[in-house]
Design a protein that fits this description.
The protein is mostly helical and about 325 residues long. It has one domain (about 1-315). It has 17 helices and no strands. The protein has helices at about 1-25, 25-35, 40-45, 45-60, 70-90, 95-105, 110-145, 150-160, 160-170, 175-190, 200-210, 215-230, 235-240, 250-265, 275-285, 290-325, 330-335.
Length: about 325
């Protein structure tokens, strides 16, 4: 699994380099120079959509956190770490979720509720992404009358929509836990490295089924996730404005919707390398933006991922190290 992730990651990186070379390194760097240090505003701006998503996560986890071990500020930090792991490490787009469960368990949340909240949140996120992509495509076709290069995206949205709905049904029927038990060890690098919470499938299945039956909480969480995804369009709007290619809010929504969908469709590729850039180039061309603007936007997004993700990974590593020192016998073992 890890070897495949490295191969896909290298292939994606090669695609990114090819796109930049085709556009011309000098022109792309010149576009970035126009924006300058103002692009750093993309880093704190990213906290807004992640914060909205963390509210949705809190809604799902709240009933099983009576001691307040995972309130919104904690979940915000964990969500930033989850995104950093998925964006910067070769984990096939789901390793961050396993890390999120691990952190919650170490903070005193029971394993089954923690895992159930993350799994359900991921399913709702996929559903929200598909709905947002459909909304963006509807905006595009309403404003332009349709464009052939996006027909493949339309087909992808249509084919993907049943998946999150089927997952919600499987959760309600208690069947998703068994599938997740078979898949998670592959991500963890083998059955021996699988997290401990996977050993109690009946408890996880019960938590998942109970969570799905809370329809009001599911709807509220999905609304906050959808709001967070839409808020991410502000990054596209601001980045292109700073790069010297100002666009309207509607165009930013269209670009963001297609970009996110293309990236998550290629979830097996680490960090969506190549897929995100191809999606940006495709949709920017469709809305009338040049290749230099598209590549500049793609590089600005990657820059933000690194500048926000590296401190998050460092903070997570520090927290894990401090937790290890607090374990019984750790002090004696270090002598």
């Amino acid at each position: 699994m890890k070897r495949a992730a490295y191969i896909l990651g290298l292939a994606g990186l090669a695609a990114v380099i090819a796109l930049i070379a085709r556009a011309g390194w000098q022109s792309v760097l010149a576009a970035l120079a126009v924006a300058g240090p103002a692009l750093l505003w993309l880093v704190p701006l990213r906290v807004v959509p992640i914060g909205l998503d963390a509210i949705g996560w809190r809604i799902l986890l709240g009933p099983r956190d009576d001691r307040g071990r995972a309130r919104w500020p904690v979940l915000l930090c964990v969500a930033i770490v989850r995104e950093a792991v998925n964006r910067l490490l070769p984990v096939a787009g789901v390793g961050g979720e396993l890390i999120g469960i691990r952190i919650l368990v170490r903070r005193g949340i029971e394993a089954a509720p923690a895992a159930a909240s993350v799994i359900t949140e991921v399913v709702l996120t996929v559903l929200s992404l598909v709905l947002f992509a459909a909304f963006g495509l509807a905006l595009f076709f309403a404003s332009s009358g349709g464009n052939a290069p996006l027909h493949s995206i339309v087909l992808g949205v249509a084919l993907t929509l049943p998946m999150p709905l089927a997952c919600l049904w499987l959760i309600g029927e208690g069947r998703l836990a068994g599938w997740f038990a078979r898949f998670a060890p592959l991500v963890a690098g083998g059955a021996r490295n699988a997290p401990a919470w996977l050993q109690s499938m009946p408890a996880l299945g019960s938590e998942l089924s109970a969570l799905v039956r809370r329809r009001g909480r599911l709807a509220s969480a999905a609304m906050f996730q959808l709001a967070g995804i839409a808020a991410g369009s502000a990054e596209t709007w601001l980045a292109l404005r700073l790069l010297g290619h100002p666009i309207g809010v509607q165009t930013a929504l269209i670009i963001e919707s297609v970009t996110l969908f293309a990236r998550n469709l290629a979830f097996a590729v680490p960090a969506g390398l190549g897929a995100q850039e191809a999606g940006i180039v495709l949709i920017c061309s469709a809305v009338g933006l040049g290749q230099n603007a598209a590549i500049g936007l793609a590089l600005a997004k990657r820059m933000r991922e690194v500048l926000l993700g590296l401190p998050a990974l460092a903070g997570w590593h520090l927290w894990e190290s401090m937790r290890l020192r607090e374990l019984p016998g750790a002090a004696g073992a270090s002598k």
